[in-house]
Write a structure and sequence with these properties.
Strand content of chain A: under 5%
Number of strands of chain B: 14
CATH class of one domain in chain B: Alpha Beta
Order of helices and strands of chain A: HHHHHHHHHHHH
Mean pLDDT of chain A: 88
Shape of chain A: globular
Mean pLDDT of chain B: 86
Helix content of chain A: over 70%
Number of helices of chain B: 12
Radius of gyration of chain B: 24 Å
CATH superfamily of one domain in chain B: P-loop containing nucleotide triphosphate hydrolases
Low-confidence stretches of chain B: 1-20
Strand order of the largest sheet of chain B: 6-7-8-3-9-10
Number of helices of chain A: 12
Distance between the termini of chain B: 42 Å
Helix content of chain B: 25-40%
Oligomer: heterodimer
Number of strands of chain A: 0
Order of helices and strands of chain B: HEEEHEEHEHHHEHEHEEHEHEEHEH
Largest sheet of chain A: none
Structural class of chain B: alpha/beta
Largest interface: A-B, 24 and 28 residues
Structural class of chain A: mainly alpha
CATH topology of one domain in chain B: Rossmann fold
CATH architecture of one domain in chain B: 3-Layer(aba) Sandwich
Strand content of chain B: 25-35%
Chain lengths: ~270, ~325
């Protein structure tokens, strides 16, 4: 593999997103949402103003879990199929570059853009909050940012994979939305349905582990188990095997969710 | 994954040292099947170094697929293609790719980049210093638009930029798919001037075109494809002879004396003879050409003017592809 080829492709993807202000727009969305949640999250309970970092993160998690997968899928779905449909793929592939380098470059460039937006958007909020919270809370918040980046990268990997499989852009965008529905809305309902249908008996032990099959759930567990307050709040502590509270295991699973779809994409693209 | 080895680059160097008729591009039984469709069905070809080689055929004849196979964009279902000694798509092919220039049909570049940025991007991928990009833009007459985004380019400007891209890194082999589409006559002339210069430098060129009249004066040899196969291969003259298409003599005689011409031709195997405004048109088979000349010479100075019209590439093409 030639790193320079990967870097050339990645650099183009990244600067394209900077130049068309995609990075700026997404960062602004994250900043505004995070600020609103931090300061007005308790408005329904009649309180306005910043409360605790843990409650802020808990609210942010439920926002990010919808938003980041959607943004990542929309960012990556036409990475390959878009070049193919516009007719620029043949010229790219006639260059001294392998298909793996092309996919990896595309992925890394887009991942850099998404990461930059996420870190800039939420980082700005951290600066605003810094005066009101202690170091431990900042570390929590930092953990939330890192897991958000991982979540984005996992869904971006899925997006690049479907952009290799899809026959055209229209189908790719449809598939992207379908994936989002499945992982963000349907998956948990299916698990819950299975649990209820079996009267809470079948699969009670296995069910928590099945959550690892969904990067969005991995993200949720990663953030919620890090915090005592929230764990109690959600009443989840007793249901889950303690092993699932290990951040290193969850991070490993997340990295698997980043690598596996990319691997499949690269295998398919070489066919 | 391909890895870079100097072997293929050396092969290119060796190709340069070989006699000029040695093949830089070789296809042996190259085939590409899509299910039951035989897009390319066993093609054998050899293109010599420094040759301008034309590939013509109807849409769907298989020339685009063959083109894409030569570039390693489509793997062959059977057979093999070698370029500069390296198997297309094989381990050594990456080094060969650095020496290949490619202009796709209806080239699509990135709208959001400027002309110069476009060349910089492809130069980086080819491992070519960016310093030469400005000169290349100048060569295709786009210096004035270097800082403008491709979005604002006309069709012809895009085609020129695509051509400049193909010339990055002084390629030894050029693949040009319908390169003059969208160019005005002046630009077409300039394009072929550049091509002539490249040929003089020993660059091998494979070119397709729908405009047969344009290509017939500019290729050394050509292949006519139909139904995935090479139906005919050779110089334009060789193809004419293979096809054995009749020639037309156009004779202008004193007093428009039709009968005199007919009598002079006597018993020669003439396919057709007709009087057209002021001259006599005679269609004969190629082998009777010199006999017709001799017969017409007997008319002495009664012949005011004489011209022989060879069948055009178009006639040849339709002869082979129908």
């Amino acid at each position: 593999m030639e790193i320079s080829q990967v870097a050339t492709i990645a650099g183009k993807e990244f600067w394209d997103r900077i130049r068309n202000r995609w990075v700026l727009a997404v960062a602004l969305v994250f900043t505004v949402f995070a600020l609103v949640i931090a300061y007005f999250g308790a408005a329904q309970q009649g309180a306005v103003g910043f409360r605790s970092i843990e409650l802020t993160i808990a609210s942010l998690v439920s926002l990010v879990i919808y938003l980041i997968p959607l943004i990542a899928l929309l960012l990556g779905f036409d990475a390959i199929v878009g070049e193919r449909e516009r007719g620029s793929l043949d010229l790219l592939l006639s260059m001294p570059i392998t298909r793996f380098e092309l996919i990896l470059g595309k992925y890394l460039g887009l991942a850099a853009a998404l990461t930059f937006s996420t870190v800039a958007g939420f980082g700005l909020v951290a600066l605003v909050l810094a005066r009101q919270i202690d170091l431990a809370a900042l570390v929590h918040y930092f953990g939330f940012m890192v897991s958000s980046v991982l979540l984005g990268m996992a869904f971006l990997s899925l997006a690049v994979m479907l952009s290799v499989f899809a026959a055209d852009r229209t189908r790719a965008s449809g598939l992207a939305i379908a994936l989002w529905f499945f992982f963000v809305l349907v998956f948990d309902l299916l698990l819950l349905g299975a649990l209820v249908f079996s009267g809470g008996q079948a699969g009670g032990e296995v069910l928590p582990w099945l959550l690892l099959l969904n990067p969005a759930d991995v993200f949720r567990i990663l953030n919620i188990f890090g915090m005592d307050d929230v764990r109690t709040l959600y009443g989840l502590a007793t249901v889950f095997p303690p092993a699932l509270a290990e951040p290193w295991l969850l991070t490993l699973v997340m990295l698997g969710w980043i690598a596996a779809p990319l691997g499949v994409a690269s295998w398919r693209f070489r066919k | 994954m391909e890895s870079t080895t100097p072997a293929a680059a050396e092969a290119l160097g060796q190709a340069a040292a070989r006699p000029p008729r040695d093949a830089v591009i070789e296809a042996r039984g190259a085939a590409r099947h899509y299910g039951a469709v035989r897009a390319v069905d066993g093609v054998d070809l050899a293109v010599a170094r420094g040759e301008v080689f034309g590939l013509i055929g109807h849409n769907g004849a298989g020339k685009s697929t063959l083109f894409r196979m030569m570039l390693g964009l489509v793997p062959p279902s059977a057979g093999e293609i070698r370029i500069a000694g390296a198997a297309v798509g094989g381990r050594d092919f990456r080094a060969v790719r650095r020496r290949i220039g490619y202009l796709p049909e209806n080239v699509v570049l990135y709208d959001n980049l400027t002309g110069l940025e476009t060349l910089h991007f492809f130069a980086r991928l080819k491992g070519v210093p960016a310093a030469g990009c400005g000169a290349l833009l100048d060569r295709v007459g786009l210096t004035h638009a270097a800082a403008r985004r491709v979005r604002e380019y006309s069709k012809g400007m895009r085609q020129r930029l695509g051509f400049a891209q193909a010339l990055l890194g002084r390629p030894q082999i050029l693949f040009l798919d319908e390169p003059t589409t969208g160019l005005d006559p002046e630009a077409i002339r300039e394009f072929y001037l550049i091509l002539r210069g490249l040929r003089a430098e020993g660059v091998t060129v494979v070119i397709t075109s729908h405009i047969l009249a344009e290509i017939q004066e500019r290729v050394d040899r050509l292949a006519i494809m139909a139904a995935g196969r090479v139906q005919a291969l050779g110089t334009v003259q060789e193809l004419r002879e293979q096809m054995d298409l009749p020639l037309w003599f156009e004779v202008r005689v004193a007093d428009a004396d039709f009968a005199a011409v007919r009598d002079a031709l006597g018993s020669l195997p003439v396919a057709a003879i007709e009087a057209r405004d002021g001259h006599v048109a005679v269609q004969v088979r190629r082998e009777a050409k010199m006999a017709v000349f001799a017969a017409l010479a007997t008319l002495g100075d009664r012949v005011l003017d004489l011209s022989v019209r060879e069948p055009s590439l178009e006639d040849v093409f339709f002869g082979f592809s129908d």
